[in-house]
Amino acid sequence: MTVRNSAAIVFFFILLGAVTAAADPQPLQLTEMWRVGGEDDDETVFGQVIRVRSDDSGRLYVLDGQLQQVFVYDEQGQLLTTLFGEGEGPGEVRRVRDLVFLPDGMIGAVCQFPGAMITVDADGNPGQSLRLSEPGRGFMTAAQRAGTLLVAETQNIPGENGTFTLRSSLDAIDRDGNITATFVSAERHVDYQNNYTFVEREAMPDFMFAFDIGPDGRVYAMADADQYAISVFTPDGALERTIKREFSARKRTVAEKSRVEALVDRRFRTFPFDLKKVIAETAAVSPWFLRGLQVTDDNRVWVRHSRSNEWGQSAGAMTVFDVFDQTGQLERQVSVPVPGNAATTGVFLAGSDRLIVVHGFVDAMCSVFGGGAGDMGDGSVEPDPIEIVCYRITNQ
């Protein structure tokens, strides 16, 4: 794994007096505004909600990776319209993985293979799309802010005798798909024909999901799944500083390891050989399926990590976030006192005063990885229907 360095001075903010699970997080004061989906909603049935984003007008955009659509809600939770749809025509998508707002006001749906960013305007009218021409290059996730268009992408580079180099990277690109800066990257060599071993930490790098862009265009990324260290880059790719804190990795239970193993088996279920697997003994600091790193408009960094749920439980809440101030110091922890199963629920900020809770989010993310067949259980229990709840934060 490589992280780009520059001649600039690199500042390291290392927190020696780290908060522990015994500390008292500050509870968010939340007022429910609206909810949609779930068992009590006969009109709305989501498939796989894998991203929620809000625009400057307070509208909420809900990306459903199974239905290949984006549902747009106003601040009162009323459905305004749907965007995109499955297909090959203008404004239609396949294998959609993420959603971005582009500087020209267009809305981009990020498609995995072949890598593409299909665009429409707020009324659903197709715009100029970005389609990668390089073979084997595809997108996983993306973000755009302050003019920085950031994509987590993969590329299969053929070698000799059926071997490949698989490259994962976090890149800034222009509107033609050209890479203008690389922030984090990792490579692994595989031989699918003879002796392929799936190594979890290599094959599922968390930096592909645990990243965000600040209001000034700086890029924040968890470069190493086993280190609580957030690399902060200038928009041109120079490492500026690292935000760190002391953290004890959480050992996975047997059940957790079995779930990951089952998920990998489903992902490679069509391979014509027995797959060897190396599953990590500890949970990643910020597991990929949480999308757990968010940067607010005031340049604070919110992190949901592998101990957030257990610390939340000890505080009488569902989960907790670490909140770092503008200088990279750990400012406080906040707890999210809402009902729900923390292990399967996504929690996201929407602007400065709203919190979006997506019940069933983790199962949806795992289904995407598992080729539509994955969840966080053993497959014997049907996941709960996805429900989205919007809360107003009154103590921010």
Verbal overview:
By secondary structure, the chain is mainly β. It has a single domain (2-16, 23-393), classed as TolB, C-terminal domain (Neuraminidase, 6 Propeller), CATH 2.120.10. The chain contains 4 helices and 29 strands. The protein has helices at residues 200-203, 254-267, 308-314, 361-369, and strands at residues 2-3, 11-15, 26-27, 30-37, 49-54, 60-64, 69-73, 79-83, 96-101, 107-111, 116-120, 130-131, 137-145, 148-158, 163-173, 179-191, 197-199, 211-213, 219-222, 229-233, 239-245, 276-278, 293-295, 301-303, 319-324, 330-336, 345-350, 354-359, 387-393. A 5-stranded antiparallel β-sheet has the order 1-16-15-14-13, with no helix packed on it. The protein has a 5-stranded mixed β-sheet with strand order 2-21-20-19-18, with no helix packed on it. A hairpin with a 4-residue loop joins strand 6 and strand 7. The radius of gyration is 20 Å and the shape is globular. Residues 3-22 have low confidence and may be disordered.
